Amino acid sequence: MRKFKLYYDKDAEETWLRELDEKGWALQSFCLGLYTFVPCRPGTYQYWIELLPANLAEQESYLAFLKESGLEVVERWARWIYLRREKAAGPFTLYSDTASKMAQYRRIRRFFALFLGIEVIFLGVEAAAVLDTGEPIFLLFFTIILAVTLAFCRAVYQCSKKIRALEEGMH
Amino acid sequence: MEKASPLTETFYYILLALGEPLHGYGIIQSVSAMTSGRIILGPGTLYGALNTLLERGWIRLYSIETESRKKKEYLRTPAGSQALQEELLRLEELLANGKKYFAQ
Predict the structure, then answer these.
(1) 3-class SS at B65?
(2) A75-103: per-residue pLDDT in tens?
(3) Residues of chain B with a CB closer than 8 angstroms to some CB in chain A
(4) Rounded to a whole number, what is the distance in Å from the CA of B14 to chain A's nearest CA?
(5) pTM of the model
(6) CATH number at residue B45
């Protein structure tokens, strides 16, 4: 089974993967919004989506650590990884305390903020092109980039909201 | 960044477990056994905590098994034991005051 979806909230994406698992579908691969699923016994796996560190050596070290801890890496896409573990193997979480959950959202926020910055630059370039030439094609590009920029804005905002909620839970 | 004191539960139990050399999964199992399954450390949490403890010099790398994979073992340092003992004194004070209050 193939499905096309675009997520900017990894928690919502995790929930979706878990729901599909309950219906007997296990993730096989992911690329550019295209998910491929294969049949599985309903309720076999629990899924987690994680953002690897920016540093390449750190990425390999963290990946090795996750695998040693009993997690299966289903897919690696850019800095994102899709992890799973059989539910029958016992209780398990990726993050077991609030401080580390907050650190994870901060890392994800930095990731999206970087792309947001790049998109804002592109947006400026396209706006200048529209004003200079008045060509409809540039207006189309401008609109597309504006949509992407807004999506990254939402992603950054979502992370901030989750960090705040965790902070409030600590006091 | 975590404050050095008081220790969080995560840091406290990792330090306690590392009185003997253990790799990541060994730490998860040891802490789970000590707390009768109450704390099951997540590898994401554990990885970050180990890096912080290494930076503080409270634990050190014990060995790297080179023949097969990069499987790192960690061990508590004397500075780590010192931090653990200071935390124990703080916890004892908490406990003593709490007990005194309820004994009245």
Answers:
(1) strand
(2) 998 899 999 999 888 888 999 999 999 99
(3) 2, 8-10, 23-25, 28, 37, 39-49, 69-72
(4) 13
(5) 0.85
(6) 1.10.10.10
